[in-house]
Amino acid sequence: MTYLKYALFFAPIALVATVPTTAQSSSARLARVVAHMKAVGTMSADFTQTDRNGRVLTGKLLLKRPGQVRFEYQKDVPLLIVADGRALTMVDYEVKQVQRWPIRNSPLAALLDPGQDLARYGKVIPSSTDDIISVEVRDAKRPEFGTITMIFVAKPGAPGGLTLNGWVALDSKNNRTSLRLSDINYNGPIGQNAFTWEDPRPVRRKS
Fold it and tell me: pLDDT tens digits for 4-54?
């Protein structure tokens, strides 16, 4: 069995310009999210991922901006997802399979590069409270890539007064995958070796 299918919500999605058409409050909320992201150099957290069938996987997230992230799953799941600043790599050690995409073509680009202007390709989902800010990222011209919605929650003392609660992804068939974060720590030391990975594919020897 390949575990890569359980991480498909990390797969490529094109980011396109979206001009916010909502009220000024939405612009202010988006500005808060951008301020939070720019204030976070590193982040570590536990995560719980739930797929469309209700299958739950857990693991550890490490993030270092710009461009680096590591999703290490629970011990019985031989799946690793790493972004090294250039490419997003998904490795299934059980079947020795590797898939790679440019970070800029991944929805995680919105999280990994604080220099990006989120207002260019994201929009705030209206809500009844300022304590929860949901930002949707999607390509209206490529619906087959699906939609990812990041969820931020107000938290005093956190960078920019917000913390990332997680995100929800919908594919083109409206299959839902969610990821929730807990035990989040910001701006602590994370070594560069956290974003390396061991290639499980057989080495081809030269004849």
Answer: 555 555 555 444 434 344 444 888 898 899 899 989 999 999 999 998 889
Q: Are the beta carbons of 124 and 22 closer than 8 angstroms?
A: yes
The label of the residue with tokens 């461009």 reads 67
119, pLDDT greater than 90: no
> Which tokens belong to 59?
């693991």
CB atoms within 10 A of CB 113: 16
Determine whether 129 is exposed, middle or buried from the number of CB atoms within 10 Å of its CB (0-12, 13-18, 19+): exposed
Average pLDDT, the chain: 82
Helical (H) or strand (E) element with 35: helix 24-39
Q: In this prediction, what percent of the chain has a pLDDT beyond 70?
A: 77
Instruction: Give the CA diameter of the chain.
Output: 66
**Residue 182 bridge partners (DSSP):** 46
Burial of 83 per CB tally in 10 Å (0-12, 13-18, 19+): buried
Distance CA(166)–CA(180), nearest Å, equals 4
Q: State residue 90 phi and psi, 5-degree precision.
A: -115, 125
Q: What would the two tokens of residue 152 be?
A: 């931020």
What Cα–Cα distance (Å) separates residue 75 from each residue in 4, 59, 134?
15, 8, 31
